[in-house]
Amino acid sequence: MAEGPLLVMWKEDIQPFIGKQITAIENNTKLHADRMLGKTITDIKTWGKHFLICFGDFTLRIHFLMFGDLYINRRKPPEKPVKLSLQFTDSELVFYNCALRFIEEPLNEVYDWSADVMSEEWNPRAAIKKLKAIPDAVVCDALLNQEIFSGIGNIIKNEVLFRVKVQPLSLVGKLPAKKWNEILKELLTYSYQFLEWRKKGEFQRHWQANARKLCPRDEVPFVKAYLGQNPRRTYYCTQCQVLYN
Prior knowledge:
Pfam families: Fapy_DNA_glyco, H2TH. By secondary structure, the protein is an alpha+beta fold. 26% of the residues lie in helices and 19% in strands. It is built from six helices and ten strands, in the order αββββββββαααααββ. It has a four-stranded antiparallel β-sheet with strand order 1-6-7-5, with no helix packed on it. A four-stranded antiparallel β-sheet has the order 2-3-4-8, with helices on one face. α1 (4-13) packs across α6 (177-200) and α5 (154-164) packs across α6 (177-200). The longest helix is centred in the last third of the chain and has 24 residues, at 177-200.
C-alpha cells in the first residue's frame, strides 16, 4: 500500500507539473474526467494516503488502495491497465489501480491537517486527545486509524511498534503516557526515514520487523498474524515487545 511518505515523495516529484495545462486525458473510470481538460494544475497536496491535484475550483483526489501506482512520463507494460492518464504538451501523469473522485469543497473544510503525521500542521497533542477517547482499542488498530494518524500504514505500524517494544494487541488505555510519547516521536522519525529510503531505493533493506522471520534483538521467530478489526498482516516479538493489557 502507498503510505504517506511515498505520496510525499510523489508530490515532490511532480512539482514541475504545477502551472501546466492538461491537453488530453485517457480515462478508464466512471469519473467525469473531461472536466479537467484544458484546466491548469494550481497545486499538489497530500493528506495521509490521499493524493490531491488541485485545479482552483475543485480537486482530484486519488487513493492508491493496496496496489496503486503513479508513473511519470512513462508507463507500465501494455497488459497493465491504465486507470487515468493526464497528458500535457510534453509530459504525462499515469495512475494505476486507484480510486478517484472529485472534491468540490475547499480542502481546509474537508481535511484535518493536524492529523497528517508528515504535515507541517501535525499536532501530537490532538492525537493524544483522540486516543484517550478509545481506551479499549488495540494499538495496532489505533495506529492505522487515519483520523488520528493520517498516512500511517501497515509497514510503519509494524516497524514502529518493534522499535518502541510494544506488542500490537496492547490496549490504548493501558499504555503509559511516556510510552505514547515515545510512539508519537517514533512515528514521525520513521515516516521521514521511510521517505529518504524510498528516494534512495533502499527501503526494504531497513526493515527490522515487517516481513522478517527472526527478531534481530532476540534471534527468536517473529509471530506473524492478521490482527485488528480489519485484520492486517502483523509481525512482532513476544520476548522484547511488551503486552500492555
